[in-house]
């Protein structure tokens, strides 16, 4: 992917293979003396038992410029939390494991519920939001990075390239989003990005007309990547979705709050692979089926907030336009894979497109039936206005869990 193409909407920072990772790391160490960098790792306990996370920790242990690593731990009991503390102890940097299921953290959730500010559902969005609250309460980091804990092809150069644009004080970027090719086991992966998001954005442009927001989303080579870096000054006003629309939601917030010149995408890997979600065609509450519905709703809500009027007729037209666009792109993916010695199962991919087409309509029904419903978690600025001690109480709760169960 070593090219130098710019799309004109956001900056694209390429890996032209002209600079060593060691040189980049040395420069980041210099920047980090005055701009502290923290990394957030949202993790399920089950990921501690997988193949990816041990290698991720081995790579992170060799990163010299990180000030703090914050691990948000979900779906863990007391024994598993104790095990997680030991598991992450290999990290030489200052680090903390936030046990999101501890009695103390549940008491924090209860306070938020009483205020009407609690996240509506557990998941990655809530995990990231809580970790960001802890990070902001510490008041000592200039840059926050986020990436997943299931990256099978992880190396520390990915992190260096991800954070460099927002750490470098000479650059204007407030948000950097990573991109990469999704290939593994001889196949092209990334089904939701390839078969849903890309053709859906094309179809939306054809059906509802030009929208700057659609052009913004289409500028990202991998809009669903889970790798972000942000300057912490923007975090208090960031609205984090609690469902599978997290990545699209963060991009939408960048569109709403920042100038386009403040946002960039950066090439962080030549090959990226992680845990693959099941399609779950029989159950729309799970897997890629659930993910596709949540992503569609996130895009519809943002367009509606900017004045787009949606009707049943528009959603029916959108489904038909999407279906044709997706099949056209599938031809491109198939030929691209063939030329590069990779495989694409056309029958499976067409079945996936059919499912996504139906879910475009299903998401539209939900949107029209519950137009005021929103999956967004309140901003930390709002939480702080409602309860000025809550953020510091999160630090106290985490410290108390460490003291009691360490």
Automatic annotation (TrEMBL):
Name recorded for this polypeptide: Glycosyl transferase
KW Transferase (keyword) present: yes
Single GO molecular function: transferase activity
InterPro entries, per database record: Nucleotide-diphossugar_trans
This protein's record includes keyword Transferase: yes
Superkingdom: Bacteria
Species whose genome carries this gene: Litorivita pollutaquae
Keyword terms: Transferase
